[in-house]
Amino acid sequence: MMADTKANASQANDTAPQANVTASQTKQKAEAVQKPAASGFLGKCRSGIAALRGTTESRLPVQIAYVYLTLPMLIFFLGWLKAPFSYLMEIVLVIGACLAIRHAPKIDVSRLTRAGLPKILLMAVLCVVWVYLSGIGKFAFQNFDHKWRNALLEKLVNNDWPVIIPDASPHFEKPIAMIYYFTLWLPAACAGKIWGLEAAHTFLFYWCVIGVMIVMTLLCGKLKKWSPWIMLAFILFSGLDTVGDFILHNSGDFTWFNTNHIEHWATGFQLSSMSTQLFWVYNQAIPAWIITLLLLHQKDNRSLIFIYAFSLMGCTLPAIGLVPVVAFLGISRVVKTYDLKKPLKENAVPILKEALTFENAAAGVLTALISYLFLKANSASTGGFRMTDMRRFLMSYLLMILLEFLVYYFAIYSRKKRDPLYWLSLISLLIAPMIRVGTSIDFVMRASIPALVILFILIMETLLESRKAKTHMQTAVITVLLALGSLTAYHEISRSVYKTIDHINHPENAIVASEIDLVEDACRRNFFGEYEDSFFFKYLAKKP
Which of 96, 224, 417, 466 would suit a FRET pair with 134, their CA atoms being 20 to 30 Å apart? Predict the structure, then answer.
């Protein structure tokens, strides 16, 4: 009896602290409910951060990405379309964006905690430094292509919208309009119209930083691994350009580490590293990265066309590379939801209901249609597609595909051979070099961007899986390949660092790309078109 009494007393003593803790927690919750919510912007930010605590998934990163893509298109509709169509498209796109935001898929945010804050801050710093070294904003050395990017922003800032040049003789016989995929610059151009061109460049820098941070968030959410190493691997990811350059162009003074641009080593072809994409064609790279990752995050078909539509005005050539991705994702989700036990009619209703949403059928289709009609008036669009002369470039093609991406596909084959995205991206990368638009090799360089993003994700997934399974050989092979590929990014980054430091020490050595007049430039037909006979400018656009 005494033993039982002592045991009961001991249990009572153990229960008492627990009861006190429970009571304390209940009191804290009650106080929290009674405490008035913080007002204003800071209060909303605190509420948003608090909502992420204690959860492993959130819609917020995807929702922010939707807003990032939607805002430039809203500016385009407002600035280029005549009043009735402008108001209509503004309403349709806003409604579509709101519905897409409402049904946004959740992604992994398990590391967005106080303990993970140092890693998140380090990743953010990497994003800022990477964009800084790209030359965006004119803060660091700008590569050759920036002269066209700067001139485009200048035209958008200093001219009324639509940008019309009444007299462009002797280069054009009729008045011309600037017709290009320029939506990434539009928020910065708005800032420039208020505060001037320099403010536009500064705003553009911050806008691109936000875009790269969105890429970082979507990428880590897809891999379910929040680590600075993931972001660093993305920054350094490339094919084995240095190996190809060594094989074809080595000499007695060949060096593996220098500041040269080496990605044109394969005659007639080029695939661009992630750093090269940002440093040379950021206006296409950032939208293409975001759109590809958003598509991969979708769990249904209700926003596929809505997301894809932004690519036409954001990254026209990557938009072509996205077509097989959108088609595959849409068809695969139909196959997964199709119930063989039900008749066709019963399957068709939910499938069509999911695909023919307002986001897709109204906002997505109309945005894509207007974008197409606008871009169709561009002079360069009349050149059309043609096949590469493979008889002339066959050996170069074979060496290029081996060193640029096949080595990676061989390395991850054992783990990814059953993943349809493995074969989809591989086929896309094999076909892209066989197609040309005009006389340049821009198509393979830009249309390959979505497939390269998918390849990077497959490589990172394999690396994480092989490390977990302690498959040391596969881990070592992938690590060595990534290290060799990173030398390409080293060339791009080291050139920017060297040139920028040299400018600091010798201000007379310019780091900003040379100023040009787009109308006078030899590549003028990439940016302008004789617009008067085009459907868009006849019926939809504002009159100059």
Answer: 224
CB 444 within 8 A of CB 432: yes
**Nearest of 457, 461, 449, 465 to residue 234 by alpha carbon:** 457
Distances from the Cα of 219 to the Cαs of 215, 226, 231, 262, in angstroms?
6, 9, 8, 27
Domain residue ranges in the chain: 61-250+258-540
Q: What is the pLDDT of residues 303-317, one digit of tens each?
A: 999 999 999 999 999
Q: Which of 315, 333, 317 shows the shortest CA–CA distance to 437?
A: 317
Chain centroid, CA 190 distance in Å: 22
- Cross-strand bridge partners of residue 293: none
423 touches 472 (CB < 8 A): no
Spell out the residues 6+ positions from residue 45 whose beta carbon is closer than 8 angstroms to its own: none
Q: Tell me the whole-structure pTM to 2 decimals.
A: 0.89
Sign of the torsion angle spanned by Cα atoms 379, 380, 386, 390: positive
DSSP 8-state code for residue 105: P
Cα separation of 325 and 251, whole Å?
42
Which residue from 145, 281, 232, 257 is spatially nearest to 495, judged by alpha carbons? 257
Q: What is the CA radius of gyration of the chain?
A: 27
Q: 67: closest CA among 420, 257, 310?
A: 310
State the Cα–Cα distance between residues 170 and 265, nearest whole angstrom: 37
DSSP SS3 for 409: helix
Euclidean distance between CA atoms 113 and 120, whole angstroms: 9
The closest alpha carbon to 528, from 134, 70, 159, 72, belongs to 159
Separation between Cα atoms, residue 380 and residue 436, nearest integer Å: 13
The rounded distance, in Å, linking the Cα atoms of 536 and 374 is 6
Which tens digits make up the pLDDT trace of 172-207?
Answer: 888 999 999 999 999 999 999 999 999 999 999 999
> Closest by alpha carbon to 219, among 294, 281, 288, 274?
294
DSSP conformation class of 38: P
Q: How many other CB atoms are found less than 10 A from the CB of residue 439?
A: 8
What percentage of the chain carries pLDDT values higher than 70? 88
Q: Both tokens of residue 43?
A: 């209060």
